Every structure is written in structure tokens, then in C-alpha cells.
């Protein structure tokens, strides 16, 4: 399950090896068995829809996105769809699988899977998604037509940031590239030093206050000037330590979260850090490790750690409010934040509702197939996507 590519470690192998070891051993599993609880949230299925074949065994970050009554989703093989959020009816479908020529009947002959991996990002009327071959597509959200496409010099394995007329991507080789949002023409690029051994993933950038905020593969937080790509500041978030190469991995794969004048970063084998957005000065540090993007709601930060603990942290002080270890080792997604609950999914295909104030288990749904990407909130529904390309809309 661990795939080496220029000495990069496939994150799916790192995270799923625990489960494989447990399945092949007669010893007690090193993940939490689900316990009974008093159900306070009754989960119902509103609709199901199929996007395509899914991600197979590949690690995927292609979470659906929602806007104005429409759910947009994509899967590795190349299918991008728009669905009515009320009933799951398909509004349009775009197949990005490359054609290799014409068949005897004069029809396009499809090639290998498109290997979609980076996205989705929605901005205005345009939906952005990229693939492992370095192609970025800009798609009209109303009809699915391709507005433009741009070939880049690196894998697109994280969602691009879009704003102020720019599309900024953090490629798999560590390069940061800015494109013109109107036509996809390159405007500037910034290269970062990449360690010999890293997780297979890149932090999605964030555009805010005229800057591009991102986490790097060498454990640093950085801000680039949006107009030029010049470095404004950088600050170390994680320092390599330990005796093995794996222990010394300090990637920041989680997307930075900006609230007010602060930015929050979470590093693998590192820390959760609050930084001043303007200067990079550290406000506080806390000993949490993970690669899933923290979620901020009100005065709290909600995150899932590398051990699949769900934690609530006070945003201003960094003090822990509560922690739930009930789902440890289950490779949890980042949480979706509802009005009174958090929703997380796991690699066994279960979706869990937790109380926002206490972390107490409130509800559960079994989707059967593993889930790698975070649930999303879509109006009064929660949308989950399984690795076999199936969307499920849930209500409580």
C-alpha cells in the first residue's frame, strides 16, 4: 500500500497500513470498535447518486462542494457532475477522460482514467479541478462546459485557491503557480525546497488580504504576495525529529484556516499553531498532529488528529475544550460543522454525529464502503462520498 515516487510516500499507505495489519492479525485490533450509545440524532437517507467508478485504491481529496441548491462532485476516472441537492437529480455531466482517437463508428475512443486528484474549488460561475498529469480544468458550473484548461509542470493533488482574479496551485513537486482566472495563463511561480521523503499530498493555498497562505512540505507556514509571488514571511511549524525517516516527516498537508487577523496551521508530526497573519508571529502552539484541515466555528477549532481523536480547542487561547477518543485508529475525515453537531466519516464506511459542546456520540449511519473525503453540509442535508463514487445525502 505504500507507493514510492521520487521518494515520496503515498499517504494512503501510511494511514491504511494500520487497518491492514489489524485485519491480518489475530491480536486485538488497533482501532476502536464501535460501541452502543443513546441515539439522539436519527439519520435518514434522502437520496443516493452515482458519480462514476470512484477512486479505487487511490487516496482521494476530491470532496464534493455545494452552492445554491447544487452539489458538485468529481471522481478519479474523470467524471464531474452537478446534482440537484433536493433530490439528487443530475443537472449535467462532464467526462474529462482523455480521448485517444476515433473508433470505427466515428466516436471518440476513451483513453486511461483522467486521474483527477486536485479540487474541487468553486468560485463564482467556475468550478476548478486538476489531475495527476498536471492539467487544470476550469468548468462552467451552470452547464459543465470547459472554459479553459492549462497544462502545469507538476501534479495537481490539492484544491486550488481562487480569488481577486488569480488561481493559485500548490503542486505535488512543491511548486506554487499562479494563473490568470480568466484564461489560465501563468503569471508567476514560486519554488520551495522539498524534503527527500514526504507524504503524498500538498497543502491547498488560501488567498486572503493580498497574500497566498500555504503550508509547505518541509513544515513551514508561508505567505507569498499575491501579485508577484514574492515571499512575505515564513515560520517553522514543525521541526523534524525522531530516529526514522517516517518520524521525521513534517508536511503541512492541511489547508490553512484564516479567521480575522490569525491563521491556524496543523502539521503531520508537528503542532497546531496560531500565527499572526500580518507578521507570522506565533500566538500559541499546541501538541496536536494531523493532516486533515481543522474547522473553525465561533470561538472553537475542531480537528481530527493522526490518531483519529476528535478535539475541540479554544481558538483564542489554544486550550483544549474536550477530546473524544471513541473513534481512534479509524482514519477519520475532517469534521463537517453543523449547528449543534460535528459529522465525521471513517475508512470502514461509517458516518458519525458528535455533539459540538461535549464530543458525545449522537448518531451514526453505515455507508458500507470506505470514506476518505470529508462530509459537507448542503442546506439541510449532509453529503458523503464513498471511494466507489457514490454520493449519499443524509438528513436528521
UniProtKB/TrEMBL annotation:
Membrane topology: Lipid-anchor
Intracellular or extracellular location(s): Cell outer membrane
Positions of the Pyrrolo-quinoline quinone repeat domain: 77-323
Stretch forming the signal peptide: 1-21
Primary localization class, coarse: membrane
KW Lipoprotein (keyword) present: yes
Keyword Ion transport belongs to the record: no
Gene3D superfamilies: YVTN repeat-like/Quinoprotein amine dehydrogenase
Keywords associated with the record: Cell outer membrane, Lipoprotein, Membrane, Palmitate, Signal
Record-linked InterPro entries: BamB, PQQ_b-propeller_rpt, PQQ_rpt_dom, Quinoprotein_ADH-like_sf, WD40/YVTN_repeat-like_dom_sf
Self-association state and partner proteins as the record states: Part of the Bam complex.
Function: Part of the outer membrane protein assembly complex, which is involved in assembly and insertion of beta-barrel proteins into the outer membrane.
Protein name as it appears in the record: Outer membrane protein assembly factor BamB
Origin species: Aliidiomarina sedimenti
Gene of this entry: bamB
